[in-house]
Amino acid sequence: MDYLAVSELKHSKNLWSRLSKEKEVVLTKDGKPGALILEVTSESLDTVVTAVRKALFSESVSNVRRRTAEAGGFSEAEILAEIEAVRS
């Protein structure tokens, strides 16, 4: 994965060159990651956006489950059992 500082964005040819080679670039500010830039085509845009949103949602759910378990709340098994009960 390639990294690009915000200050380098004014050199857009460099960004497009990196994207064509790496397919993704991490945008950094003060050396810390802040955004992910992905290469897309007009045909793949909707599919890529949907996949990214699903991945972000899944990560959020996992984080909530982990924090709940760490705080002494429901265990992972209890959460899964409740989900199964609601779906039945």
Characterization of this structure:
The protein is an alpha+beta fold and 88 residues long. It folds into 2 domains: 1-39, YefM-like fold; 40-88. The chain is 56% helix and 19% strand. A 3-stranded mixed beta sheet has the order 1-2-3. The protein starts with a strand and ends with a helix.
Q: What is the typical, i.e. mean, pLDDT?
A: 90
Q: What is the strand arrangement across the widest sheet?
A: 1-2-3
Helix % is 55-70%
Number of domains: 2
Low-confidence stretches: none
General form = elongated
Q: Note the total helix count.
A: 3
Order of helices and strands: EHEEHH
Structural class call reads alpha+beta
Give the key terms.
single chain, 88 residues, alpha+beta, YefM-like fold, 2 domains, 3-stranded mixed β-sheet
Show the helix and strand layout.
Elements: E1 2-5, H1 12-22, E2 24-29, E3 32-38, H2 45-70, H3 76-87
Parallel strand pairs: 1-2
Antiparallel strand pairs: 2-3
Question: In a nutshell, what does this entry contain?
Answer:
With 88 residues, the protein is an alpha+beta fold. Helices cover 56% and strands 19% of the residues. It has helices spanning 12-22, 45-70, 76-87, and strands at 2-5, 24-29, 32-38.
